[in-house]
């Protein structure tokens, strides 16, 4: 693990969700990227993966409940980083969280509290990339897409110069600490059938991780110049302070082929 007092000429990344299926791939891609020389990984408990011990990685253990309540000691951990790029792959399921309210607490409130704390007010431009969901919609009647949609809108309102929203399909090859039986069988369907007829069906987590790192490196203007992504629909997203780009599953797959 890197010394937090170390300095470098490269950019600094802040990562949420490094131990998850997508976040672990994002972390690996950040480590491999010469663009980022320091990676601050914020976790709920110490991790013991090889990636977390890389010399570029500084791991911070955070009490997200206290962070949501505005605890100064937790907020300060994020402020001190002064990240150039914030990458968010933190999320959960209703079943894993134990109900609708704890799901929203983790899936949305933890994310927005951390992103707000990481924002340097009046400072340098900062970019944020978020792993959302294919059907994200703040007006949805369903819990999961509504939470993702509200999180997208919340991120777009925090003052980041660039807000990049990935909306992936089924996460193929996801490595879970606790295997999900239904996910396994649905994955067989998406990989063997649906992905053959639609580019919106699935994306390998390894590809998604690489794309998230490259997208936040490029920024909104860089993505636009390459014809990657699209403008968001809905006033709440389009009216954000920074440039907001939405990258759907098909666009991410195309992007992944160039990496």
Question: How would you describe this protein?
Answer:
With 259 residues, this protein is of the alpha/beta class. It has one domain: NAD(P)-binding Rossmann-like Domain (Rossmann fold, 3-Layer(aba) Sandwich). Helix content is 42%, strand content 18%. It is built from ten helices and nine strands. The protein has helices spanning 23-32, 64-68, 72-79, 94-97, 100-118, 143-156, 181-197, 205-225, 235-238, 249-256; strands at 11-16, 36-43, 57-61, 85-88, 127-131, 162-167, 170-172, 202-204, 243-248. Strands 3-2-1-4-5-6-9 form a seven-stranded parallel β-sheet, with helices on both faces. A two-stranded parallel ribbon has the order 7-8. Helix 1 (23-32) crosses helix 8 (205-225), helix 5 (100-118) runs parallel beside helix 6 and helix 8 (205-225) crosses helix 10. The radius of gyration is 17 Å and the shape is globular.
Present the secondary structure layout.
Layout: E1 11-16, H1 23-32, E2 36-43, E3 57-61, H2 64-68, H3 72-79, E4 85-88, H4 94-97, H5 100-118, E5 127-131, H6 143-156, E6 162-167, E7 170-172, H7 181-197, E8 202-204, H8 205-225, H9 235-238, E9 243-248, H10 249-256
Parallel strand pairs: 1-2, 1-4, 2-3, 4-5, 5-6, 6-9, 7-8
Helix pairs in contact: 1-8, 5-6, 8-10
């Amino acid at each position: 693990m890197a010394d937090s007092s170390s300095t470098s000429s490269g950019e600094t990344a802040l990562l949420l969700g490094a131990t998850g299926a997508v976040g672990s791939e994002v972390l690996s891609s950040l480590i491999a990227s010469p663009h980022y020389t320091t990676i601050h990984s914020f976790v709920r408990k110490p991790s013991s993966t090889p990636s977390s011990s890389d010399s570029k990685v500084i791991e911070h253990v955070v009490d997200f409940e206290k962070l949501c309540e505005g605890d100064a000691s937790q907020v300060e951990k994020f402020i001190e980083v002064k990240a150039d790029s914030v990458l968010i792959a933190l999320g959960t399921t209703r079943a894993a969280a134990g109900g609708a309210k704890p799901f929203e607490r983790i899936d949305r409130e933890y994310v927005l509290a951390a992103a707000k704390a990481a924002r340097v007010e009046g400072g340098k431009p900062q970019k944020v990339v978020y792993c959302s969901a294919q059907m994200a919609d703040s007006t949805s009647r369903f819990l999961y897409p509504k939470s993702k949609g509200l999180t997208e809108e919340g991120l777009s309102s925090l003052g980041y110069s660039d807000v990049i929203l990935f909306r992936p399909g089924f996460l193929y090859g996801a490595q879970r600490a606790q295997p999900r039986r239904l996910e396994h069988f649905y994955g067989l369907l998406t990989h063997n059938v649906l992905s053959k007829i639609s580019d919106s069906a699935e994306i390998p987590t390894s590809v998604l991780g690489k794309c998230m790192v490259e997208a936040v490196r490029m920024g909104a203007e860089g993505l636009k110049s390459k014809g990657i992504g699209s403008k968001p629909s809905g006033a709440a997203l389009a009216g954000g302070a920074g440039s907001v780009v939405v990258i759907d599953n098909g666009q991410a797959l195309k992007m992944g082929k160039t990496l």
